[in-house]
Amino acid sequence: MSITQSYYARITEILAEAFEKEADNMEAAARAIADANKSGHSVFAFGCNHAGLITLELFYRTGGMVTVNPVRAPGMMLEVSPITMSSEMERMPGYGRSLFNGLPAKEGDVIIIHSVSGRNAVTIDMAEAAREKGLTVIVVTNMNTSAQVTSRHPAGKKLYDFASILIDNHGDYGDATVSLPGFPQKLASSSTVVGAAILNAVTARASELLWEEGITPPVFMSGNIDGGDAYNKSVIAQHKDNIFYM
Question: Across residues 211-225, what is the average pLDDT?
């Protein structure tokens, strides 16, 4: 079997395991997001660096929810040089709380936080601050990794300690998935592929729940098909009170 086939096989195994074993937690997350939309509350999403790619996947995307607000923080979006600074910054105690305090978040809102290891201070501080303010905190993490690594937070906590709803992405320890004979480092991560699939499914289910209750889901249409721009402008206007990225 080629390494291409090995990666495909492992990714499909992880996806199948995650969608089976996390079904109840994914349903709870979808319900929380649907209820936030229904009640006029806001939805936020955050991750540091590569974990933040899931935030971008959910944001301003065809078929995605108009009401998902990305938290795009300085130094947390792979935009700094040297890039090693991004690893240092996500370990900074207090930065996550400062970022959260700058959000227009209120009790009853929802925040999605993604981190493979769940060990670094920024996401932990943000999750703790969100829980203190009464938000529902949806955590997507890799428990195979997080349960085996030490915390870098001053209080010794990990991200999963502050989850209202915990979704395990069922990735391998360290996130990489496939091996070359004789080469010690595994290759090809799974967290972006699997995390994107999980949260696209969760937001799709949230839209389905709204539709079942007679509420039109706030979903983007492609701007590259006829009528898309006008449709999106209308949806954005309808939900402007819960959109903070315009």
Answer: 97
Cis peptide before 82 (omega within 30 of 0): yes
Angle at which helices 191-212 and 3-21 cross, to 10°: 40
- Dist. CA 229–CA 35, nearest whole Å: 27
The residue type found at 219 is V
Two structure tokens written together for 32: 């929380």
Of the candidates 166, 206, 209, 195, the residue with the CA atom closest to the CA atom of residue 22:
166
Cα–Cα distance list, 69 to 30, 66, 152, 245 (Å): 16, 8, 27, 6
Strands 110-115, 43-47: pairing is parallel
β-strand pairing of 110-115 with 136-141: parallel
CB 223 within 8 A of CB 230: no
The reply to whether the predicted model has a pTM over 0.90 is yes
The per-residue pLDDT for range 163-205, each reduced to its tens digit, is 999 999 999 999 999 999 999 999 999 999 999 999 999 999 9
pLDDT in tens, 128-154: 999 999 999 999 999 999 999 999 999
Distance CA 191, CA 188 (A): 10
